[in-house]
Every structure is written in structure tokens, then in C-alpha cells.
Amino acid sequence: MDYSAFKRYALYFLPPAEAALSAFGARWLGWSIDEGRVVEFFDNLTEGHAVLTATARKYGFHGTLKPPFSLKNGYDAAQLHHAATELVATLPQFVMPQLELTNLSGFLALRPATESDELSKMAEKLVSGLNHYRSPPSKAEIQRRRSLGLTPRQDVLLMRWGYPYVMDEFRFHLTLTHRISNAEVRAVRKCIRSHLHDQMLSPQTIENIGFVGEKDDGNFHLIERLSLASP
User: Fold this and answer.
1) Hey, what CATH class is 3-227 in?
2) Which of 105, 162, 199, 216 is 20 to 30 A from 154, alpha carbon to alpha carbon?
């Protein structure tokens, strides 16, 4: 495979491709990261749904483990893929806790109902273990991040790891909307719940991690699911 067809790379939690939750995410956002194609939205959505989901759409339905990054000069995508495959193979499979629909500072997302040490440790190891492949953020990116408002700790993380919401600031979530007003939350939440059923949110054993890439069109595509260590 030509891994170099992408301008940024990331490691994502992706629901199993055959799972109802995966199908929900694709139809809610209008993009299948597994198949790399536009998907028809659900019927009976709230007004302005395409705008409501525009930012999340290009990333696909996912939970970030290692945030998107560009490759540092001197490394190529095949080297990154090899290193990511070997690292993921050392990490144990784990059970994703029950998910729940939550309001995270104004945007709606799915979050584990209980904290998962396994999930947090996995994200830490992916962030640190592949960090030397990451190109440092540009001055423009640093300024953009800072302009959105960072705590001193988040600023330290941005400069150390290229992203402010990692390590002790990591808050795993699967994004469903951009930031919306309090007046919109009730209607959008009701719309989500009309398509998202409780059985989709049940605890599940996670056997692999998505190695994904962003193409020039700004959309993320699944490159390969990398297998976690068997029990």
C-alpha cells in the first residue's frame, strides 16, 4: 500500500466495521472513514444538520488516541506504519466501557460512562511511543491553539507532544457535533437518540486500533486496522 498518499496520520479508536455503532456514526456524520466515501445522512434530522456535523465529518466517527500529525523530515509513512504496527501489537486488548451521550463544553459526543485506565494508558503509550515521528506544530498552529484558550498545563503539553489534550488532559470521546448553543442541545440530543439505540453503546472488547490518514481533500480514511495483543 502507498502510505504516502496522506498528509497527516493518526491512531483512532474505531468501532468494529460491522457494528451497528459504526453504521450509526457514518450516517450521522455523512462520511464512512472505513470505506473512505460519502454516506447518505439519516432521514428526519434537525435543520442545518450538515453544518452541525461539518467539522466532525472530515475526521470520521472515531475516538482519538494519538492526535493527527505530519511526519518529521527524515521519516516516511512506511516507517511510521511499521512502528505503529509493532507498538500496537504490544498493547493488550481491552473492554471499552458502556458509552453514553454527553455534552462536552457545548458539543455533543459519546463518552465512556466510567473511566478506563486501560484506555488512558493506551493513549499515553501511543502518544509517547510514536512522538519522534511527529513534525513539530507550526507557529501558526501554536498561535491558533493558544487563541482558543489553553491552561498553562495544556500549553506545556502542546509544546511537548504537539497537542494540548493528551496525557493527564486526555478526555476520550467520539464527537457528534460542533459547539452548539444551549437552546439547540435538547433538539439535537433528541434527534441523536432517535437513531442511537442503547445496545449500540454496550461494553465491547476492542481488538484493534485504526491507523488513519488525511488526504488532500481534508477527509480522514482508514489505512489499516492494527491488531492489539491477544489475551
Assistant:
1) alpha beta
2) 216
